[in-house]
């Protein structure tokens, strides 16, 4: 039996904060068992939100400086987390924050220098999980599916509702997974127009009405019917879904309402397109799982033969941090942590750079 104690760090596209999850992974006779032991979300200050969100518009020097400064910041968060809870840590495993993701140009880039993180945390650090997959011709995303396979095999589908929604499932002989559509990265700016950081429980969406023209426009992009491998970056979101929302004259509540219908519809399409049987058990995680209007739409479009399971809030909030911790364990063991069946890379690969402090 082998045990690993790892802190997984995730910063998602919603820019709501840094998720830290201290986890134990046990490998026993070919099976993995996980336990989440401590968690913390550190909300971003306005300064960090502006700095990270603005990185697509600044000089190369500023990008490099932010990569270092943000890596150092993550390391300080780790150090404080470890000291506060008196944790024994084998290593840290960090996703970083995605700035660019254009796999068609062979580009994916996350800031959060592993070297600076390791130095500030005073712990070995695994980072940069996506670049090798891109170099092997893959999308570099989504990477969570191997964790879904090895840690959540009791579910037929794993659906995450973060800034972008994505789904993962076991096909006949291989794991299938892809990004479905924009999710909170579309809803949060609309809530912002109503003076809220997000649409709590989907209350504003619920109060709106359905707008057929906007629904049709949101469903228009060819991305939705394209086969996987495929993944979405902010660049695609700006050009497509966010533009459709901006150009619509509908009331904000109607936009929220219609966007939730669009997401529920696309999620159901994604599930049905690949489901061998038109039934199954679906694990629902990510902050969007708290948006009850959105979840109702997902249930509605999926129909009653699919069981949608929303787990305890800790797993809803920290599943991605947990799985990035696990990808670090696989990297540490020099085992594959990126699936070519998901990303389209030339072969399964073992992504991630390790910095020993
Ligand atoms: N009670 C709630 N009601 C509605 N929405 C909520 C609620 N709580 C959280 N959210 C949404 O969840 C978002 C955070 O979700 P999460 O942390 O999973 O996203 P992320 O990590 O940025 O995404 P990604 O998976 O794309 O990397 C918030 O920005 C908000 O939109
Ligand atoms: C490039 C990038 O950061 N992609 C994220 C993003 O957020 C959701 C979706 O888009 C997914 O492709 C991915 O994250 C998850 C954690 C993944 O790689 O599985």
UniProtKB/TrEMBL annotation:
InterPro entries documented for this protein: Anhydro_N_Ac-Mur_kinase, ATPase_NBD
GO molecular function, one term: phosphotransferase activity, alcohol group as acceptor
EC number: 2.7.1.170
Enzyme class: transferase
Pfam family, one: AnmK
GO process terms (BP): amino sugar metabolic process; peptidoglycan turnover
Keywords noted in UniProt: Kinase, Transferase
Record protein name field: Anhydro-N-acetylmuramic acid kinase
Organism: Rufibacter quisquiliarum
């Amino acid at each position: 039996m082998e045990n690993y104690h790892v802190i997984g760090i995730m910063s998602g596209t919603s820019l709501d904060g840094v998720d830290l999850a201290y986890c134990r992974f046990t490998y026993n006779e070919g099976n993995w068992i996980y336990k989440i032991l401590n968690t913390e979300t550190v909300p971003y200050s306005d300064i960090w939100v502006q700095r990270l969100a603005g990185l697509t518009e600044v000089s190369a020097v500023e990008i490099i400086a932010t990569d270092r400064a943000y890596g150092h910041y993550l390391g300080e968060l780790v150090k404080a987390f470890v000291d506060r809870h008196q944790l024994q840590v084998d290593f840290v495993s960090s996703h970083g924050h995605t700035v660019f993701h254009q796999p068609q140009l062979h580009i994916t880039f996350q800031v959060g220098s592993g070297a600076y993180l390791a130095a500030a945390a005073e712990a070995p650090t695994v980072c940069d999980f996506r670049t090798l997959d891109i170099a092997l011709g893959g999308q570099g995303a989504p990477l969570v599916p191997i964790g879904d396979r090895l840690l959540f095999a009791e579910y037929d589908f794993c659906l995450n509702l973060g800034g972008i929604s994505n789904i993962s499932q076991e096909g006949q002989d291989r794991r299938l997974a892809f990004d479905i559509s924009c999710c909170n990265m579309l809803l949060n700016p609309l809530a912002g127009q109503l003076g809220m950081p997000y649409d709590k429980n989907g209350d504003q969406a619920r109060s709106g009405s359905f707008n057929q023209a906007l629904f049709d426009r949101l469903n228009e992009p060819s991305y939705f019917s394209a086969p996987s491998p495929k993944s979405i970056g902010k660049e695609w979101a700006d050009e497509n879904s966010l533009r459709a929302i901006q150009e619509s004259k509908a009331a904000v509540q109607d936009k929220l309402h219609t966007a939730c219908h669009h997401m529920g519809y696309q999620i159901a399409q994604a599930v049905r397109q690949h489901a061998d049987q038109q039934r199954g058990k679906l694990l629902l995680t990510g902050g969007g799982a708290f948006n009850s209007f959105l979840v109702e739409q997902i249930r509605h479009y999926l129909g009653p033969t699919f069981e949608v399971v929303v787990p305890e809030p800790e797993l809803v909030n920290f599943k991605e941090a947990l799985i990035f911790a696990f990808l670090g364990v696989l990297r540490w063991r020099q085992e594959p942590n990126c699936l070519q069946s998901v990303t389209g890379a030339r072969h399964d690969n073992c992504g991630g750079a390790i910095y020993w402090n």
